[in-house]
Structure formats: structure tokens, C-alpha cells
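To whoever picks this up:

The nightly regression suite flagged Nucleoside diphosphate kinase as changed. Nothing in the input moved, so I suspect the structure step. Input below, exactly as stored in the fixture:
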Amino acid sequence: MTEERSLILVKPDGVLNGHIGEVITRIENRRYQIKALKVVNASKEQLAEHYNQLVDKPFYPSIEEFMQSGPIVAMIVSGKNIVETFRKMAGATNPSDALIGTIRGDFAREWDKGSIQNVVHSSDSIESAEREIKIWFPEEK
Ligand code: TYD
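Regenerated output under the current build:
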């Protein structure tokens, strides 16, 4: 059986505020394996594919603007239950709801206006992980 994978992004706020190392440390502390890692400037096309379930929402332009406001770090991370476990490690979507001890609870700012800025993205299912890996790592099998 192939190992479970997730697509994890450190979003522009996480990069700008210096949390790349912290996110990687938390992944390594759980003994997950980073299989690929790159710094990228997200294109509109990549973002529209990545957020295909949100692209028609009225707030999508603010997500696009935020996700293009600076470089992001994209990773393929593998290990047992990585998808479910990293979602727990990331915490709730809205930083105000994210528990202390989660990445978003510890590092995300209050959500005041525009897009929610919540430090990380992680795939919400094994199927979406494989779909998202193709968007950010087209060179990977
Ligand atoms: P979603 O997939 O619902 O959350 P998660 O990232 O926890 O899987 O939404 C994707 C991103 O879109 C979310 O991290 C932040 C942004 N977003 C907003 O800016 N405003 C909103 O009202 C929602 C629902 C999401």
C-alpha cells in the first residue's frame, strides 16, 4: 500500500511572520516525512484549482489577493494518518476559534477584514491531497 500523503502550504502570513521553521519542526516532531518542499509564488490558475470549491464565493477575490501577497511554502508530507492528524495540528479555520497549541491557535492573527489569514493549509481528505499535490508539484508522480 502506498503511504498516505498530504499537501501542506505555509501561507504568505506564515512565511512573512517567520513560521516556516515552526511548521516544519512540528511535522518532524511527529516523525512525519517531508517528501518534497518548495517556495512558490502562487499563480491565479493554481489558486483557482486549489480552491475550486470556493472560487465562486463572493470572498474568493480576497483569498486570491492574500495568497498572492507573498511567497508560500508547499510541501508533500507523508505518514500514517497525516491528513487527519495535520488538520488537528493546524486547528480551526478561523483563528479566533483555533485552540492554543494548534498552529493557527498559536500563530494566526485575529481575523479582521479580507481573507482569513491562518498560516497553513492542509488537505482535508486523501483524495484532495492527491488532487492538490498535482497542482503544486506537477513534476511529481
Ligand atoms: P476552508 O477550506 O473552508 O478551510 P480550511 O483552510 O480550514 O480547510 O477554506 C479555505 C480557506 O479560505 C481558509 O483557510 C481561509 C479562507 N476563507 C476565508 O477567507 N473566508 C471564509 O469565509 C472561508 C470559509 C474561508
